[in-house]
Amino acid sequence: MLPEPDRYVYSAITSRPSIQLPDGAKVALWIVSNNEFYELNPPIGGVRRPWPRVQPDVLAYSHRDYGNRVGLWRLISLLDSYGLRASVSLNVALCDHYPETTEACLKRNWEFFAHGVYNTRYLFELTEDDERSVIQDCVDTIYKYTGKAPVGWLSPALTNTERTLDLLPEFGFTYTCDLFHDDQPFPVKVAKGRLISMPYTLDLNDVVVFASYLHTPEYYGQMIRDQFDTLLAEGGESGRIMCISLHPYLIGQPHRLRYLDEALKYILSHSGVWATTGAEIAEWYMAHCYEQVLSAVGAK
Fold first, then answer.
1. What digits encode the pLDDT tens for the residues 129-166?
2. Residue 228 and residue 225: Cα distance in Å, rounded?
């Protein structure tokens, strides 16, 4: 039998201390825009090929490039219409390749959190020194272009190693999106410092919905509304976090965006919604909930 990850203690959401979100909100909504850069001909090696079909894969490369050329700008326009800010899950190489994309999000006061250097360069099988170099590159680049160090982390292509979580607090990170185990933030066991897991999403991630589930855009919009309805009802007892994870090359296609538009309109028509960013959720949780939850669940 394989051991459990031993990164967090078991705690039923119904038995831990109630979380009261700011201003009486029941649901904290954060929207993630995965602003990514895929290399046409990345290095091959290790346990996962960057392009599983062929390499170089002009078709797949250009499809993803659509997000930076067209899709992101469509998404920006939609979120602007609602006065919403996103949290950018950033491949930091994008700052050098397409600085216009970073500048546009920075102008709107979107949050930037780290998502590796390229989405075709993985953490799998890196030495500790090399992994540290990747994390440091992310911190330095985001600070250089935005003036703020990132506090959130999502491993590139979800390729975290067994040491990633221990390294993050050393570089000033307070939350990770690499765990998918809860509808509330939760303390993570790390070697030194403090780290929480931030409710990210696979089920409302457009890559999974469109490429794996093969659902229609209309059904995706319904999924978002259904998820919100359940979390809003549960949030009356204890606040819930709802993430909508988007990739501009997918959601930014002309036939898809209207269904996200309709879902956002539906969510924002309700009271009790805190539309925010991952960094703001993490800051609030660390200040008001971390110690209380840690004490209640018996973690060290």
1. 999 999 999 999 999 999 999 999 999 999 999 999 99
2. 5
How many residues in total does the chain contain?
300
- Matching residue, tokens 């079909």: 53
Domains of the chain by residue range: 22-296
Q: How far apart are CA 83 and CA 260, in angstroms?
A: 15
Q: What is the pLDDT of residues 43-62, one digit of tens each?
A: 987 788 899 899 999 999 99
pTM, two decimals, is: 0.96
Q: Which residues, other chains included, contact 287 with Cβ-Cβ below 8 Å and sequence gap of 6+?
A: none
Confirm or reject CATH 2.60.120.560 for domain 22-296, answering yes or no. Answer: no
φ, ψ of residue 197 to 5 degrees: the values are -85, 135
Dihedrals φ, ψ of 294, to 5°?
A: -60, -45
Q: What does DSSP say about strands 111-114 and 175-176: parallel, antiparallel, or unpaired?
A: unpaired
DSSP 27-50: EEEEEEEEE----SSPPP-TTS-S
The residues, ordered by sequence, that sit 6+ positions from 127 with a Cβ below 8 Å of its Cβ are none
Q: Outline where DSSP puts E strands in 91-236.
A: 111-114, 152-153, 175-176, 186-187, 196-197
